[in-house]
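Incident log, support desk, overnight shift.

02:14 A customer reports that sequence design results differ from what the structure should imply. Their input is reproduced verbatim below. On-call engineer (initials T.W.) acknowledged and began investigating.
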């Protein structure tokens, strides 16, 4: 007779994480698009080579570091919900502004609405 280990009730499998939801995938895509948007803005909004190259590379790297430190699911610095919201609003809002300032208000509006809806859903899920 073989004895198989049983999971405790209420604890999902796969290393303590639940199934990957649609909002989690959407949030990941929005994060990548936000970082891409910041680099795109740095390339086209500034004259090349010095300020353009600095902003094209530096701004996305800065946003990725801030996101990884304060907002990522496994963030290095644990933060309260308000702090997480401030970081998310700052990064996503900067990405919305970049598209608007480059003359693409439709991309800015669609991205902003998707980021807002996804952020609200995630905030409610994290604080339930």
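02:41 Re-run completed on a clean worker. Output:
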């Amino acid at each position: 007779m073989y004895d198989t280990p049983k999971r405790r009730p209420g604890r999902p499998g796969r290393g303590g994480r639940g199934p990957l939801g649609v909002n989690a995938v959407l949030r990941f895509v929005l994060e990548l698009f936000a970082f891409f948007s910041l680099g795109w803005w740095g390339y086209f909004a500034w004259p090349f080579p010095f300020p353009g190259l600095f902003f094209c590379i530096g701004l996305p790297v800065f946003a990725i570091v801030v996101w990884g430190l304060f907002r990522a699911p496994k963030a290095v610095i644990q933060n309260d919900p308000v702090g997480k919201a401030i970081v998310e609003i700052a990064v996503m809002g900067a990405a919305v502004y970049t598209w608007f300032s480059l003359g693409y208000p439709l991309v800015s509006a669609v991205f902003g609405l998707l980021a807002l809806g996804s952020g609200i859903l995630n905030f409610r899920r994290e604080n339930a």
